[in-house]
Amino acid sequence: MVGDDPNPPSGWKIRLTLALPIALGLALRIGAARGDYWLDEAWTALFAREARTPGEMLLAIGHGHGDLLTIAWLQLVGWGGSPLLGRALSIACGAAGIGVAGLIGLRRGPGAALLTATMTAISPILVTYGSEASGHAVMLLALLVSIWIVDRALFGRPPRHAAAWLSLAGLLGTLADMSMLYGVAALSGWVLIERGRHMPAGRALAATLWLMGGPVAAVVAALLLILLGTYAGADGLLIGGHAAFSWPAFLDALVHMLAFTIGWTPLIGLPMLALLLLPLTVRRKGALADRAPFFLIAILGLPLLVALLRPEGSALPRYYLLVSMALLLLIADLLAALIARQKQPAAVAAGMILVAGLVADTAIVDSRRGDPGKAVDAMISRAPGGAAVMLDHGGDSAVLESAAASRVYQLLAVESCAPARFVYLSSDGTRSLPLAALRCGAAFRPVAAGHAAGLSGMDWQLYERVR
Q1: Of the candidates 256, 94, 278, 67, which has an alpha carbon nearest to the alpha carbon of residue 179?
Q2: Residue 434: what are its φ and ψ, rounded to 5°?
Q3: Nearest Cα to 89, choosing from 101, 73, 65, 72?
Q4: Which among 155, 114, 148 is positioned nearest to 339, based on CA atoms?
Q5: Each residue of 228-258: pLDDT tens digit?
Q6: Which residues pair with 463 in a beta bridge?
Q7: Which helix (H) or strand (E) holds 362?
Q8: What is the percentage of the chain residues whose pLDDT exceeds 90?
Q9: How far apart are CA 71 and CA 230, in angstroms?
C-alpha cells in the first residue's frame, strides 16, 4: 500500500508520540470518573457485594447487572469503596486502548498514529465508557488489540502466537461485553475476504480458520457461560428491562452514537447517519483499500443487521461501540492520508473534530454523570445522624445506598408512605423534574439537584419535607 510500512518503526520517538495522547486521554477519563455511581454502576456494585460464588456472579449477569470482569473488580474494591477506584479498571483499559489505536495507525505513518491516538483519546463516547464501572472499556481494548493483530497478520509481520492472543482477546472481550461478538465476526469476514483475494476459496477458508477459529470458539464459549447465567436468572428481577425494538429509538441511538463519536453533539440529528456511508468512499484499489472490508462490515454491516433482526434492547448508543471505534479508525486513516498530501480542508476537519470532542468532554467531566452522591451529602448536612428517603422508583435505592456506604452514613430508602424527611426523584433526561413534591399528604421543597451530560448518568432532585 502506498505510504504504508508493513513493519512500522519502534523506538523512543514513537513512544513519545503516543505518550502525549495517552496522557491526555488518561486525564480526561480520570476527570470524567469523579462522582458516585449512577444507576447501572450502582446495581453492578450491589450485585458484586451479594455475589459470593461464581454461580452467583453468573446469576447477577442473568439479572442484567454488569459482567464477570467488572463484578470481580468491584469485589476487590469492596462495597463502600471509592467510586474512582471502582472505575479504575475501565480507566486503565481506556488509556491502554489509546496506545493500541496509535499502533494500528502507525502502519500508515507516525502522523497517522498520532492522529488516530488523539482522536481515540478525545472521542466523547470513548471518554464516557472509558470512565465508568462497566465492561465496555475492557471490550474496546480487546477489540483494538484484535484489530492490531489481524492487521499485522494480513499486511505485515504477525506477532508470535497470533491466533492464541486473538483467542484470549476474544474470550476476555466477550466476558466484558457481548458486543465483542460483532467485532470478531467483522474481523473474520475481513480475513476471509483478504485471503480470498490471493488464494483459492478452500485455502482462503482454511487460512481464515487457522487465524480466527480460536477467537470464534472463545467467543462461543464465553457466550455459553453468559447464557447460562441468563437462563439461571430468567425469572429474577431485571432492572431497566429490555425495551422492544422501535425505529425511532433505533435511529436515535445511532445518531447519538455518531455525534458522540466525533464530538459534534450540538448537531445530533438524522443527517449524522450519513457517516455510516463513509466506508463506501474508500476506493477499491486505493491506498486505504486494505482495511475497507473491515470498515464496511463493522460500520455499515452492524446497523443493517440490527435493522434486519430488530433485537430487543438495541436502542442504546453503547450497543454500537464497534461502529464507533471502526469509524474513528477510518476517519483517522482518511484525514491522515489527505493531510499528508497537504490538503488543508482535511487539517481543518481534524481540528474541528478534536476541538468539538474536547468541548463535549468538558461538559461530561463537569457534570460528573449527575453525581447522585451530592444528594447524600445534602442529607448528611441536614440530618447527620441518619435519614429516611422516599423513592418513586425502587431502582434508585442502589444509587443512594452505594453513595451512603462510601460515606458510612445510615440511610433508609423506602417506597411506601413511611415517615421520611426526604424525597428523591430521578430522570433519564427525557422528562423534567417537578419544582416541588407532594407525597403522602406532605409537601417537599427541593434542596439539591444533579444533571448529567453525555451518554451515561442521571438527572435527579432531592426534596426535603416542609415543616
Answers
A1: 67
A2: -70, 155
A3: 73
A4: 114
A5: 766 655 444 444 446 789 999 999 999 999 9
A6: 423, 446
A7: helix 344-367
A8: 77
A9: 15
* Amino acid sitting at position 52: R
Q: CB within 8 A of 421, min separation 6: which ones? A: 379, 382, 383, 387, 388, 389, 464, 465
DSSP 8-class letter at 300: I
The pLDDT assigned to 131 comes to: 97
Torsion of CA 293, 154, 214, 197, to 10 degrees: 60
Angstrom distance (rounded) from CA 323 to CA 276: 8
- Report the relative pairing of strands 422-427 and 387-391 from DSSP bridges: parallel
User: What is the C-alpha separation between 228 and 240, in angstroms, rounded?
Assistant: 20
Alpha helices in 88-232 (DSSP H): 88-106, 110-122, 124-129, 136-155, 162-176, 180-198, 201-232
What residue type is assigned to position 177 of the chain?
D
The whole-model pTM stands at 0.94
pLDDT at 418 over 90: no
pLDDT at 424 over 50: yes
Number of helices (H), then strands (E), in the chain: 19, 6
Task: Report which residue type is found at 208.
Answer: T
How confident is the model over 191-230, as pLDDT tens digits? 999 999 999 999 999 999 999 999 999 999 998 887 776 6
Copy the grid coordinates of residue 227. Answer: 447464557
Distance CA 89, CA 178 (A): 18
Mean pLDDT for all residues in the chain: 91
C-alpha cell at 238: 431485571
Separation between Cα atoms, residue 48 and residue 1, nearest integer Å = 49
Q: Note the Cα 148 to chain centre separation in Å.
A: 19
Instruction: Output the nine-digit C-alpha cell for 127.
Output: 471518554
Query: 396 CB contacts (<8 Å, ≥6 apart)?
Result: 39, 413, 424, 426, 460
CB burial of residue 291 (10 Å; 0-12, 13-18, 19+): buried
Cell of 223: 457466550
**CA 459 to each of CA 27, 293, 406, 446: distance values in angstroms, whole numbers, following the listed order:** 25, 41, 21, 14
Which pLDDT value is given to residue 8?
A: 65
Phi, psi of 268 (to 5 degrees): -60, 125
